[in-house]
Queue: 2 jobs
Job 1
Amino acid sequence: MTALRRHRALTRVWASDPGWRGWCTTVSHTDLGRMFLTVAVFFFVTGGILAMLIRAQLASPRSAFVGPDVYNQLFTMHGVLMMFLFAIPLFEGLAIYLLPKMLGTRDLAFPRLTAYGFWCYVFGGAMMIFSLLAGIAPDSGWFMYPPLSSTLGAPGINSDFWLIGITFVEISAISAAVELTVTVLRYRAPGMTLSNMPIFAWYVLVTAVMILTGFPPLILGSVLLELERAFGMPFFQVAQGGDALLWQHLFWLFGHPEVYIIFLPAAGAISTILPVMARTRLMGYGWIVAASVSLGVLSFGLWVHHMFTTGIPHMGLAFFSAASTLVAVPTAVQIFAWIGTLWRGRPRLHLPMLWILAFFATFVIGGLTGVMVAVVPFDWQAHDTYFIVAHLHYVLVGGFVFPMLAALYYWMPHFIGRKPYFKLGTTAFWLIFTGFHGTFLLLHVAGLLGMRRRIDTFEAGQGWEVINIIASVMSFVMAIGFALVLIDVILNAVIAVRGSRNPWRAGTLDWAMPTPAAAYNFASLPHVTSREPLWDDPSLPAALARGEGYLGDPARQRRETLTVEPATGAPRYIVVFPANTAFPMGMAAITGLFFLGLLTKIYWLVPLAAAGVVACALRWAWTLGTRRPEGALPVGRGVSLPTASEVADPPGWWGSLFLLVADGTFYGSLLFGYAFLWTIAPNWPPPAYAEPGIWLAALAAAGAIFAPLGQRLNVPAGVGASVLGLLALGIAAAGVLRLAPDPTRHAYDATLWVLMGYGLLHLAVALLMTLFLAARRRAGFVSALAGGEARIVRLWVDYGTLVTVVSGLAAGLPGVLGSLSVGGAP
Amino acid sequence: MTAILRLSGPITLWLAGFCAVYGLHGLLCSSRWGALVAPGTGRALLIVAALAAVAAQGALLAALRRPHRGGDDPVIRKATLILAATALVASIWTLLPVAVTSHCL
């Protein structure tokens, strides 16, 4: 078969639907990556317009451009759009587009999940934009501290948009994180060991795991605050046993890792682009891997440094001050590795390199002011001033936006398949760079002169006037620069001449394909033995196009790719991807109805939409796999492999495992919140603690034995035993709820409801999955009979059992200790 | 997966130890639980907990220095050892306040 005929045959199998229908039905990572990037840029532009309005208001003292109500919405939505709807989705879009291409595979692990996440992002983002246009946008700051954001401080619907809209959008982040993690670990070109992975993949892996463990505390906080606002469950009301500081802990448990979730992908882009610009290999690959992993984990030990002024004891402050200074070390390791790479190579000053230099200058300043605010006495002075505003913009714009602009100009030939023409881009660079520093450098001084954050206006005579007028003028210079970038991209996409493959002469696999990329990425999958396969074998793209790699024969007429062993890269099994479908978009729309019902308090819609989501999920899973065993199939290069339906660890198992990591972090955060209130909150103990008693304990114990045990018995009665065990656990959990009939009475009762509600939800999921598996077995699905699906269900049953038992113990513990007169019990 | 777990284990252990000592500090300084320990023993408990965290980190570093039965990729092994040493230094540095700062002030 010639390369052209192979291309046509593969395109017939992999192509998205033509025209506008393709936008709704595509499950291709290339399409969805581009769509993510486009929508993220839309939100960036919207957030940027809000920033201009903010600077217009603050240009002069006693400005009456907008009133305080509108101003509160402006600065809140600026932060919300930039952090939640631009930065994270832009990373997701870039990773979704690039990762399979860099790893030498044909798509991400779960293509329909990619599409579902995208549509959740679009619908959730639309909800936020609607609130802005309707003048009812969130107005309590992007961090939504209660009691400002609770019904006491914000009785309108504004805060609900934040809590519900952002939670909806976070479905997208969690979905992307699960599939990026599984993709990096399993969906690589055969032969690609961990140490041969492109450095960008390491950064994506670390970032994805950080999203899985960083976002759940925020989702929990949002759930708790919305429960308080909608149903009066007093988690943050001091008078009823709650504590507003709990929100700050939950928020910053997310919020500080979030900074690194934003920075690390940018660092990944730099580590990829910089060696190509310097025409050498990356110096210190192992050190950079270690630095990115340590940054990822260290960032979870810093959250309290956002709370230095809340009255925490000195020793607690010292812990987090020390950890905050420590984090500069792995950051510096990366920067020295990049400088070393430049030193060793022969750098070319193309536009991506200019942006990297801008990153160095800006991010290092932001990092150094970060070390300053890590020092407690300085932070006490600078907290909530414009010094912090300037610092965070240096870190986020310098550490994310500038590297992303480098990435835009580096991969633009890949996106559009045209030869880059950079004249306008260079002008835009100078406007943005000077505009940015002109805006924010002097704002450090304004902060040191005492200018507070979030003020809608200021009086003359405090020494802030000149700084603010300069900042406002320069911010418009920066905005003109960004507008030029947009025009530049459009011009390049429309009028630039067709480009050649691999214009930068890069070594990674993303350039081993024609551009723009074909729907299938690689006509055949490469066998990889080094980090820069194209430098080692420049003829590789032609060989792949000739079908000399794996899966080069499209005879089976379906979307196939390979998985590998995580460490060694040895090929394991074939995965058959789904075809184009509008199903994910429909399911995201129904998910949106669930959130809309909560937002508008049309509560009858909520269970209906939830049932719809469950029905969709069951339909989704039912369509997976086949009823006909295929055995080992040839994949090329003399290798034969089974399909995912016939193995014990199918992709779904890996996806479930990492979803449960996020779920477990959510639950761990809930237990932390409970312990925090019990330890710190005033107005404890509650009027009474629940004492489940011996019968409920016995019922729960029986359920905890039979539910998981039944899953492990390979006989039909095992299903019955497991179902009975799950039901027993559910009855016991409901029994505990009856002991605290009024969740609005005290934070303890409210927490108990959430703990047991969480357990009941997971028991219901486990029950549904158990029955679903039985139905699949009866229908003769190979994956249900081969054991892979049973392992997935076992995972969920074990987890549901564990959390219900732990919730029951946590609910009953105060009562037990109370009877022993321990822990301030009544 | 064991390579990934070995790589991420040491620094995750640091996070666990760090959070545990911070949590213990919170308990000891709370009006509700602090009364359960004898006066003056709070700091001693914190120092013991910090030393235990540092010792665990040292033991993990020593264990990871031994050759892995499955045979490690040299790059990943190097990164693992860098991370284990980093985690040990991080433990000492971030838990040092138990000995040098005021306790519950």
Job 2
Amino acid sequence: MKRLFLFCVFCVAVVARAQTEKVDLLLIAADDALLQPLVQQLGQSKSETHAAWTFWRGTLAGKSVLLARSEGDPLNAVAATTLAIRLHAPRLILSYGSARAHDPALKAGDIVVSESFAAFDGLFSPPSSLGQGIHPLQWQQLPHLLMTAGEKETPAMTFPADAPALSVALALTSPHGRVLRGVLGSANQVNREADRVAWLHTMWHTSTEDGESAHIAGCAALLGVPVLGVRVVDGTAADAADFARRFVEAWR
Amino acid sequence: MRRSFFLLLALASVLRAAEPVDVLVQGAEKLEVRELIAGLGPEARKVTIGPFSFWIGHIGPHRVAVSLTGQALINCTTATVIGIEEFHPTLIVNEGTSGAQAPYLTLHDIIVGQRALDYGNFISPVTAAGQGSSPMAWTPVAQRLRDPVSGQLVPYPEGFAGDPAALAVALRSRNPMGRVFAGVIGSAHEVNLELDRVRWSARNFGMDVEEMESGHVAAVARAYGIRYIAFRVVSDAPYEGVPFNASAARATGLFTLNFLENLPPLAMPMPARTP
């Protein structure tokens, strides 16, 4: 009896630290326009707020899902992703939304699915004296040093996407364009200088830019959770949410 | 049996609110937390959550968790959320190294953060191919946080103020390797060594030093309503041509130890999670 009791205590301890109420999928998007079409389709919907971050939990296409609002910037996105992983241990994270093209071959309505992610906000500028100006097209990339086991920081220029989920997404169609694999780039930046966009595309091999996808992927990599991103080029919220819903239906 | 069930339930709730601490002290690099881990004393123990390590013990009158966050936004935001959820601190101290953005600063000087902000966000104007890139024409974008009461996204263009009581104690604490000033700390995943851009950042954001974490940690602390202060030692000074000097991390570690010894006992921790 005493042994059984101690075993129960151990189990409770593990569950308590890992948290309960697991979900199949975390669906994370920048704003209510992207989220509400899916929130309205949730079965057994519940919302929960932790500090500044709100989540909606329920069922969608037979899967348990958690919807999270990233606010479209890296800090809120990483905080919300960390909380979601800690509280609900998703099997997969899907970051969805719209994006601006870095790759000139992309057209409005194309959907880019993450082959990988690049958080392109890292920069290192060569030293120069006062009066010598600023030369942003000569800046160098600064990798992200992700914490890894053993208190080691591992440099990464890109973060991986989940290959099985990528295959599922690539099998879907887009109503207004193509579905392509690519590199989803993110930073809390809106780049509209053509020369800088070209420079970013050359340096980071980014297909698109948005406010958070690669940072979510970095957080997922830290905590060992598979992740996929989809971005509709210059797309509407309705198109992105529709693609996310169809992905949830197809994903096993 | 029924009594055992309720005992288990009670135990689960205790474990869920594991190990509250008075102060969560964060450093991005091992050299930045080395003096603090040593200062926790022989009873210190280590907790590992994912890739993040925390060392728990006592410094002065405080129960302290020392956190090795790793560099920059992704690492430090993740580590901070985990640290808050796990240890429910009353105060967060984020300390480490930085690059001077003002010519009055030199190696081993310490800036205590009157405020900390994210300076790396912007919207650029529309320009055509061949017109180049002009960072001085970019419009900064403030970090925003959603107010759970009003439901509104609130921008923080000035960043996040350091806790006034902690700031006052810090300014009375000794830096054994240099001077101590109150100032503004800017965070981004950037190392800026072009002095024209350094001067532009200092003038536009009021920044005294640049680094990669404190503005982000400050935002998370604000979201949770947790007191916050940041310390940054100058480890490189581009105006003087001083390259990065990792040993400066020792100064910030020793200074933080002195700060914790001087800091009066804190009130009981507030619940970290909102309902």
